Amino acid sequence: MNKNYAQLSVDDFLEGQLLLIDKPLRWTSFDAVNKIRYSIRKKFNLKKIKVGHAGTLDPLATGLLIICTGRFTKKITELTLEEKTYSGTFTIGATTASYDLESPVENQVSTDHITAQDVENAVSQLSGTQLQVPPIFSAKKVDGKRAYESARKGEEITLSANTVEIKKFEVDCSQLPVVRFLIVCSKGTYIRSIARDLGEKLKTGAYLSELRRDAIGKFKVVDAIDPLVFQKILEQEKG
Q: Are 179 and 173 in contact (CB under 8 A)?
């Protein structure tokens, strides 16, 4: 899906566009939406335009973010239902409070006894349909507040488990204690929670050390564009 963004008119964006954005590291999904909205408004001197995204990515994750403009924002709910494909790394032998590198690494233990077969056995138990408890550092709402807001204050939080499906879970254990993975999963699956669960199965702890979203349904990150490149394209065509 390769679009010539420079050729799109104001009416094209208002009627609706589905933009494939490659979210940079440390950007929030909201940062990416804001950059796209700003670029379109500046290009066409618009006071406002509807812009939204289909499926949040954490700041420490990179990869595909589907951004919809204009009337296509009505498609967001439908798009969030699509299966997701992720790749990245888990690091075993330690934990973090957020299950990723947003929090300091702690509880470090030796993993010398862990073999590739041990990891494969744990992975097989974490594949298929299952109940998954979301991370406390997540956007899930508890008593009207985002869970991460309470977690960052050190408040006790209890999150209910959700039914998710891990449709594919492949690992490369050639660089233990780092485990490379490819996961295809249903809507609502937290890869950070898979890291936590893997660590519990291995009795060593584990955390998510790298994450990239490669696909949402039929849409691929190889067809996506950096938000700053998108901005540059629009600015170059101005005037």
A: yes
